[in-house]
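Lab notebook page, bench 4
Experiment: in silico fold of construct C2
Operator: M.H.
Input chain length: 205 residues
Purpose: comparison with the prior construct
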Amino acid sequence: MGEISNIQTYAKVTEANYQLALDRFVNALKAIGLWNEAIAESMESFKWERDEVGAVFSTFTAPPDYATQVMDTQVSPYIFISLLSEEPKGADYWLSFNLYIETEELQNYYNGEYYQETYPLIKHLTQAMHKELDQTGVYFTDELQDMEALEAFSEKDLSKLWEFDYAIIPNHLAVLYGKPPVTHSIKKHKTHIEAWYTQRWKEPV
């Protein structure tokens, strides 16, 4: 498998309420037509199981070669849970919801530019995720940027807030994202903020 791009968002959860976040991810998958028997079985396999130090290693156990067609592009959903604390009693658990896409489907290998059809696809997928899951933004990233936004929230490392090529940010995070660095631009909407890395995200006007 080549390089993977990712559309990702996160939800801080507990053992008592994590199923609500899973259900919202299911709603997003259904909304984009990314739902079938194989995904349903994988969702059933997701369990909350802690080890002796409190870490939860349950993952979304879709077959490794699984993918479903969305707008003629292969998209693979994936979920995992992270324990971001060394003290289980005060642990923060975060569910990471992901849509994996092979980068070569989205981007020209030789010049690094996104294909014209990439822009509406990514916006469609991020909007569907944002509609259901809005604790954090929904971020479109490459492999180097992957999971950086989660560290921004979980570890309070604000330098990583802008590690993405494109994102939809809920308005309740406007204080964090209202003033972009020189590398990014934003557009404010009634319910959210669009943000993008200007060097790579060059959506046609």
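Observations: DSSP finds five helices and eight strands in the chain. The first strand starts at residue 4 and ends at 13.
Next step: discuss at group meeting.
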